[in-house]
Amino acid sequence: MNKNVRHLIAAALVISAFSAVAPANIFNLGVIEANASTYSGASNGQLKSLSVYRSTGKEAQLYSNLAATKETELTSSTDYYIDLKGSDGVELDAEVEGDDYVVKVFKSSDKDAEGYDPSDLGLVPIDSGSTKLYLRTYRSEDDYKDAWDDGNVKKCLKTYTLHISKDNVNSDEEDDVEYPYLSSIYLSDGSINFTKSKTSYKVNVDEDVKQLLVRAKPQDDDDLVEINGDSVDEDGDYEKKVSLDKGENTIEITVENDDETTTYTIVVNRGGKSSDSSNSSDEKDSTNIITGSDSFLYNSGTMNSWVSKNGKYMYMDGTGQPLKNKWWFDVSSASDYYFDKDGYAQTGWAQINGKWYYFDNSGKMQKGWISNDGKWYYLNVSGAMVTGWYQDAGKWYYLNSDGSMKTGWLNDNGSWYLFNSDGSMVTGSVLVDGVQYSFASNGVMI
User: Which Pfam families does its entry note (predicted)?
Assistant: First the structure.
């Protein structure tokens, strides 16, 4: 008789013997329930229990990394390693903390991969080498279905990765494995003591911080990076704005190469204790530092801080380097800034990627109507200067090619229009210099 068939029959007999006294959900098909790895400190959306069973019916041990020799328990960590020597595959059993929260198992890291309930997955065959399974948690079954319909199942609460190795990995083989890492993590508020091999962090921010800008740069530019399930790349400076609820918020950053995936987890407590870093530009506690011919005025340090240099402003990021040639959103002031090639915050007019923007003396990007040198301009919601026709609050305006608001007469494509002194387009009948003119509802002179 086939060995696997004998295992299944034996397991079935055990299940039959105990089914009269044990609830049905204690068992997965073909395996016997063992002591699951549990996490008593799990928050909503985190796994509170996880069991991985070999095809032989025995529970597999979880390890924190490939080189570990001591079994690990389920914790807030999201990466676990399994040595599957002597088994044809695995079955999973997992529970998530929180009413109506669900966990799904994925056989692929693709965004459009199909998820399975752990109890419905059955035996997953594992070939020689390395295989990864992904467990993702969602607030509800509907949330999973919405993510599936949107083609991005990575829009979840947490992602757990099971790194399953069919054969033992010796130290020489492990040295050949190239794991992907981040070179830095930057937060627009709060700070972390980043090292590439540390994958879990906690940071506290003030309660009024409703949004956090996260920048996660990979060590290798060819690696793929995602922040909370959304891809970020070099063109966008590996950045994503993350909205924060009051209390704990989990930010997951994954970096992936051809063979492996590393997951970094940041738990942000909005309304927690004061963060070590500050975004304040208050200079009452500042220190003046002379470095060569440059004078820097900074507050509490050189990371995540505004710096005054030669009468201009710079911003030092989480790595201690000034932002250059890039946009930056300051959560504390809810304002956008642009830093030039030398790292200075832009002021006045600036043309960026073919569009014109205006920044006040402190560097804040302006929006809406502004008056400059006696002329009015309109800057849209993204801050870009508007030209041509524009409707605002039900009224039509015309902005010249230089962005200045038009008043008086305008000939546009052979039609005449008239604009009031406030720039609004005239309709109906109006007396101009003693002459009566009529304008249609679209502003064209009749």
Answer: Cadherin-like, Choline_bind_3
